[in-house]
Structure formats: C-alpha cells, structure tokens
C-alpha cells in the first residue's frame, strides 16, 4: 500500500487535525513513510492566520510539485487546512500540478481523494463540511461509562464500522490535543479564522470524553483541550449540557463542567489543559475549577494582543487593558503558582510609539512567564486589511525585538523563583540539543532539562529539583 507523510504549519488545532488525518489514512490501509523523500503521498496542512505561514506552505507545495516534474511523476501532493478554504479552487492556478485540496474538517473525505489521486486524477477540490458534520477522529470503542451511570454515546458523522479498529500507530508523544470547539464568532478585525474555519460550534461532552479515552489508551498522559476561543465552549449555537451528566463539584458553566468530567472519568490523564483563552472567559467558577480539580494544570495561555486601549478597540477584542489585568489578578490570586503566557501583535495599523509603550507597560504589570510576539500582516477580507499598513517593516522588527528582550528579562525573573524547588516533570524524551539529556514539562508548561535516570520512559512523572534557570528553560536533577 502507498505510504504518506504530512507536513504541518500553524497552530495546535492544525497539529491535532494532522494527527487525526494520519489515523484515518492508516485505517484506510496507508502506511507512514520513514521520511518525506520516500513517501508516495505528501500532504501539506496549511495555516492562513499570518502571511508568512501561507508563504511557507506555498513554497513547500511548489517544491513538491516541481519534484513531480523532475523524477517523481507518481507523487501525490495534497493541500489541507485553512489556506485550502481561503484559496478554494483558485489554488490550482497558484500551485500548478497540485493533486487535490481539502478544507478544514474535510478529513473524513481525504483517504478517498488520495486513492483517486493515486489512480491519476488531478485538480480535485473538497471544501470543508458544514459545522454540523464533525471531523473528529474515527470512533475506537462503542460505549461510554461514567461513575455510577451510563452515558448514551452520541451519533457521529464519521464513525468507523464497529468491526474496523484503527491501524497501529507509532508510539505517541505523552501529550496530545483534543478539539472541543470548532470555528470562532469573535470577529477580531485582523483575523481570518472565522472565514476559513466557520462559525463557533461546541462538541458534545460525551464525544469529547470518548476521544480523550482513546488518547489515554494510546499512552497519552497530558491532554490539552482546544478551541479558537476555548472559554466560549458551550456558550452558543444552541448547545445544552446533557441532563444525565451531573457535576459533583457544583459547576454550572460548560467549560468547568467539562474539565471536571474528563478529569473524573479518565484518571489515566494526569494533566489537563485548555487553550486559547480570552480574558472575558476568566470567571470565578473557572478559576475555582483550575484550583480544585487536581488534573487541571496551573497554566493558561491568555492572548492580550496589545496593551493600548485604543488599539484593542480597533482590533475589536472586546476588552481594555484594565479588564485584561483584572483577569490576570483573578488567576494569580485563585491558582497558586500559575504561569500565564500570551500573544502580542506589533505594528497594527495606526500603532504609535505611545501605543507600543503602553503594551510594554501592561506586559510588565501582567508579569507573563512567556510571550509570543508577531509582526502584523494584513489578511485578505478582514476589516483591518482595508486600513493603511503604515508601520514600516523595520519598525515592526524593532518593536518585536524590544518586546522579546523585555520578555527575556521577565522570563528570567519568573524562572529564577523555581531554583531550589522540587517539581513534578512529565518526561517527554531526549533533549533536542543534547541527546544524552532528557526534557519534560512542569504543570506550568515550563520546559525542564535533566539527566535521565535508568529505565526512564516517555510519559513518566519524575520529581526534579531545579538547579538553574534560563528565560525559557529550567535545568535540574531527578530526586
């Protein structure tokens, strides 16, 4: 049978989509290629959030299609993900020789497209299905049981036949993603996600629970629940929490109830996270769930984007800097040792030096453990694309470097507080920079590098005493 390789760009949701797609291809009989050069099928899972991500994906597709013309005529090259929806059928003019293109959440149809492409068809286009047609992974079991009662299993649009088990997959990373919320209704002025991923829709908690169980059965111990604006889970689109799933903790909001359910029913999952957050979703009940549910990690990625109230209004973010800092205060007061990370955009149209300095000030007040800084780039069809992109590339680069230098100093201070303490680390595997050492993560999602003990395995929980700190990495010894 033909072999495949998937090249992924973009966010955690794309990483999860690629993982699900790989499982579907294995179930259809395709095998994992040892490397891209030997694969019969290469799929590029693309991102449209930033111009640079699209440029990388288009460059990759161009090289792959060129290799078809120069020595690999049978190679199948497919495009999936957000860029596929944005360019639609026009992508075949942009990338001559492309075998097929399929939008987000069209994963169930991709194995059939691959078969047709291997038979010689070209130029096939499969848009993503409507929101009601979920593209979760194939079902791997037929019942769901909770403590003290049975929960009926939901019907799923892409359920595999009961007698068809998924093909054997490679040994997993101890961490995995599970999507709980599709699409986005937020409509920030600069963001193309609602156009390429559709409107917001929350998944049934029973369906999510089944998927987390399947991940745990593969050896996953750290699960991150995903949504473009994850705290909106269960808050729109006609969602109703099933009456037959109680909340022993007395939670009434959907996301805390889901966290409690997964933690209670899948104890093999030692750590539970969720991303990406929004400051308006930081409620007292969510903070209580983060504090009281042992599996929920003391870490939250909470994009701020700007510290300037004027720019936040232009961005249509729905909050000002005071409201953002209030969310940070609630989290820090309610969750001991919480780590808060963020996203920042520099060079948004009209951003003045005063706006930029305000961002620096608010970042310092928030005390972020880490920050991901992006240079603004206009995305076609978004409201901000109609504005003059009046901050020069050189100035965007300068502001980017200033914020990164600020964050290095802030990150060093945050990590210095861990020196001398003993922490629990989920072992992941050999360090990328030194294979003789291993790395793992704390509950705060901080990377820890350590000398591995004998017989250590990926997924082990280790007690590590921190002996040194860098801005983004801790170093320690196993105790």
Oligomeric state of the chains in view: single chain
Number of helices: 13
- Estimated share of beta-strand residues: 15-25%
- Find the CATH topology of the largest domain: pyruvate-formate lyase- activating enzyme
Which structural class is indicated by helix and strand composition? alpha/beta
Strand arrangement in the largest pleated sheet: 2-1-3-4-5-6
Fourth CATH level, the homologous superfamily of the largest domain: tm_1862 like domain
Radius of gyration: 23 Å
Shape: globular
Q: What is the mean pLDDT?
A: 89
The strand count comes to 20
Residue windows where pLDDT falls under 50 for at least 5 positions: 130-134, 139-171
Topology readout:
Blueprint: E1 3-8, H1 12-27, E2 31-32, E3 41-46, H2 51-69, E4 76-81, H3 82-87, H4 91-94, E5 100-102, H5 110-118, E6 124-126, E7 145-146, E8 149-150, E9 175-182, H6 193-197, E10 201-202, H7 205-217, E11 222-227, H8 254-265, E12 271-275, H9 284-292, E13 299-301, H10 309-315, H11 321-334, E14 339-346, H12 353-366, E15 370-375, H13 393-416, E16 422-430, E17 438-441, E18 447-450, E19 461-469, E20 473-478
Parallel strand pairs: 1-2, 1-3, 3-4, 4-5, 5-6, 9-11, 11-12, 13-14, 14-15, 18-20
Antiparallel strand pairs: 7-8, 9-10, 16-17, 16-19, 17-18, 19-20
